[in-house]
Amino acid sequence: MKKTVRKFSISKFLLFLLFLAIFIIIVLIGIYKFQTSPVSSSTSPKVITVEKGENYYKLADKLKDKNLIKSVTFYKLYLKITSPNSLAAGDYELNEAMSVKKIVKTLKNKNNQKITTVKITFREGLNIRQIAKIVEEKTNISSAEFIGKIEDKEYIKSIQNEYWFLTDNIYNDQIYYPLEGYLFPDTYHFDRKTLSAETIIKKMLENTESKLEPYKQQIEQNTYNIHQLLTLASLIEQEAVTAEDRALVSGVFYNRLNIGMSLGSDVTTYYASKKELSESLTKAELTDCNGYNTRCVTMKGLPVGPISNPGLTSIKAALNPTKSDYYYFVADINKKVYFTKNINEHNQTIAKLKKENKWAA
């Protein structure tokens, strides 16, 4: 009799464990289904851009930020369970009424891509002409149309008050393009439906504002105004590559400016002549006196305006130059920069580079 009761008790306990396990599984499945279900019933389209090299896991935060999934953890759990195939770069139109399953299914098929945005990358140091060329390559906006808008002073005056860093210095008659130096280099996504020269310019200016804002107080306290600082940064951008070299180059320029010495920067001569750095300069172009050419014997200060659109590293270098006794520098064919204190050391460095076939003529 006792053995029967014991067996019954054990069987009852095992049955309880079984029901408990089933209950837990049902609860977990319920949680899983809830967490992978649609966020809401809204079908308003939201575009997700998949960059080249991104996978489903890297998209998790983007989807969460757009409120397209309830949980990053359960989204990734779904990926673990289903192991979806490779993901093609492009734009995909999703909405909050989609479940995780539906979202992944949409992303799996590259035929679902929506060409709603245009991606354009402008690297650091490009000038307006080079930016306009890229715009023409990536959009139906011609280079001439883009430059025409950049040169339109009435248009610029109509938006000037929106940006604290746009001062009347940009209207100097010697300046080629008023917004040169003010279009921040970056990767941008533009809506095809509203794409125009104006939308590109404004988005770039807005980015410039966001990048400059943390340094606004430092800029206002500087000896040089914002236009002069961006001009200096544009030279630094062209003259050096590393952050360390850029800060040293900045220091050299400050040293020269402080004693009224010519900057003697070749990159300003190229810009003045509207030539690329890969082209040759004539003797007349080397000595031509205009608002940009710092090799002109009569020019002692900064050019009339920026010669390129600098990145943040060069802007920071213009604000925080490395102090030194250097007044000269030269770069070799590998873009390594050599700094010297006087003209004799400078000429010796050039001679050495030529002897070693490292001279960038």
Specify the overall morphology.
elongated
Strand portion = 5-15%
**Rg:** 30 Å
Mean pLDDT reading: 90
Distance between the termini: 106 Å
Tell me how many strands there are: 6
Class from helix and strand fractions: mainly alpha
Largest sheet: 2 strands, antiparallel
Detailed description of the structure:
The protein has helices at 2-35, 60-65, 72-82, 100-108, 128-138, 143-151, 153-159, 197-212, 216-221, 226-239, 243-258, 266-272, 283-287, 312-319, 343-355, and strands at 46-50, 90-94, 117-121, 187-191, 328-331, 337-340. By secondary structure, the protein is mainly α. The protein folds into 2 domains: 46-115, Endolytic murein transglycosylase (Dna Ligase, domain 1), CATH 3.30.1490; 128-324, no CATH class. The strands form 3 sheets. Strands 1-2 form a two-stranded antiparallel ribbon. Strands 3-4 form a two-stranded antiparallel ribbon. Strands 5-6 form a two-stranded antiparallel sheet. Strand 5 (328-331) and strand 6 (337-340) form a beta hairpin. Helix 5 packs across helix 6 and helix 10 crosses helix 11. The radius of gyration is 30 Å and the shape is elongated.
List the helices and strands and how they pair.
Layout: H1 2-35, E1 46-50, H2 60-65, H3 72-82, E2 90-94, H4 100-108, E3 117-121, H5 128-138, H6 143-151, H7 153-159, E4 187-191, H8 197-212, H9 216-221, H10 226-239, H11 243-258, H12 266-272, H13 283-287, H14 312-319, E5 328-331, E6 337-340, H15 343-355
Antiparallel strand pairs: 1-2, 3-4, 5-6
Helix pairs in contact: 5-6, 10-11, 10-14, 11-14
